[in-house]
From TrEMBL:
A biological process from GO: methylation
EC numbers for this chain: 2.1.1.63
UniProt keyword annotations, A-Z: DNA damage, DNA repair, Methyltransferase, Transferase
Domain Methylated-DNA-[protein]-cysteine S-methyltransferase DNA binding residue range list: 93-172
Reaction(s) catalysed (UniProt annotation): a 6-O-methyl-2'-deoxyguanosine in DNA + L-cysteinyl-[protein] = S-methyl-L-cysteinyl-[protein] + a 2'-deoxyguanosine in DNA; a 4-O-methyl-thymidine in DNA + L-cysteinyl-[protein] = a thymidine in DNA + S-methyl-L-cysteinyl-[protein]
Family stated for the protein in its record: Belongs to the MGMT family.
Protein name per Swiss-Prot or TrEMBL: methylated-DNA--[protein]-cysteine S-methyltransferase
Pfam families xref list: DNA_binding_1
InterPro entries membership: MethylDNA_cys_MeTrfase_AS, MethylDNA_cys_MeTrfase_DNA-bd, MethylDNA_cys_MeTrfase_DNAb, WH-like_DNA-bd_sf
Originating species: Quadrisphaera granulorum
GO MF, one annotated term: methylated-DNA-[protein]-cysteine S-methyltransferase activity
Length: 190
C-alpha cells in the first residue's frame, strides 16, 4: 500500500536522461509535480512534495515510466493524468497559460508574446512568463516549448541547456542563437 502524507502527496526520485527528477503523485496516482532534483528553479516548497515514497510504488512507477519513455524517445506523446492538488491557489491567468502551453504541439514553439495574445492578454507578457515559471506539471504541460522573442532559448527550471535538449529531442530546429537565462523572472518549469 502506498504511503501517503497529510496532503495526500508523495514523491520519489528517479534518474533520467536529463539528470535526476522528482516525481510527485497524489492519492489517485495523478502527477502533482515533476521537478529537477538538482537545482530546480524555483525550488518546490516541501509541502508540494508530500512524503517520501518508494520508487517502486505502483502509481509513482506508472508516471515515471511514461516520463522516461518520452525522454528516451520511445514515444512521441507524454500523457499522464494531472492532479489539481499541486495548484490549489492557481490564478485564472495561470490556468489559462497552462492550458495554452499544453496545446502547443510537439516539435513547435510559441513565444511568451504569442501565448499572451492567445489567452486574450497581449500586454501581459511578463505575467505569462511568471505563470510559465510556476507550472508544476513540467514536460506534460510543455513549458519548455515557450521561447523568447526571435526564438531565443530563455530561462528554464532545469536550466537553458536542458530546455535546448528537450526542444532538440522533439525535433525543433534551433538557430545558433545564445542561451539566455531569464533576467529576474521565474524561469519556465521543466
Amino acid at each position: 500500500m502506498a504511503q501517503t502524507s497529510m496532503n495526500g502527496l508523495r514523491h520519489a526520485r528517479t534518474d533520467s536522461p536529463l539528470g535526476p527528477l522528482v516525481v510527485v503523485v497524489d492519492d489517485d496516482g495523478a502527477l502533482a509535480g515533476l521537478y529537477y532534483a538538482d537545482g530546480h528553479t524555483p525550488a518546490p516548497r516541501p509541502a508540494a512534495l508530500g512524503s517520501c515514497a518508494d520508487p517502486d510504488d505502483p502509481q509513482i512507477a506508472t508516471v515515471t515510466s511514461a516520463v522516461l519513455g518520452y525522454l528516451r524517445g520511445e514515444t512521441d506523446v507524454l500523457e499522464v493524468p494531472l492532479s489539481s492538488a499541486a495548484v490549489p491557489a492557481a490564478t485564472d491567468l495561470q490556468r489559462a497559460v497552462w492550458a495554452q502551453i499544453a496545446a502547443i504541439p510537439r516539435g513547435e514553439t510559441r513565444t511568451y508574446g504569442e501565448v499572451a495574445a492567445a489567452i486574450g492578454k497581449p500586454t501581459a507578457v511578463r505575467a505569462v512568463g511568471q505563470a510559465v515559471g510556476r507550472n508544476p506539471h513540467s514536460l506534460v504541460v510543455p513549458c519548455h516549448r515557450v521561447v523568447g522573442s526571435g526564438g531565443k532559448i530563455t530561462g528554464y527550471a532545469g536550466g537553458v541547456d536542458v530546455k535546448r535538449r528537450l526542444l532538440e529531442l522533439e525535433g525543433v530546429t534551433l538557430g545558433p542563437g545564445p542561451l539566455v537565462p531569464a533576467p529576474d523572472a521565474p524561469p519556465s518549469a521543466p
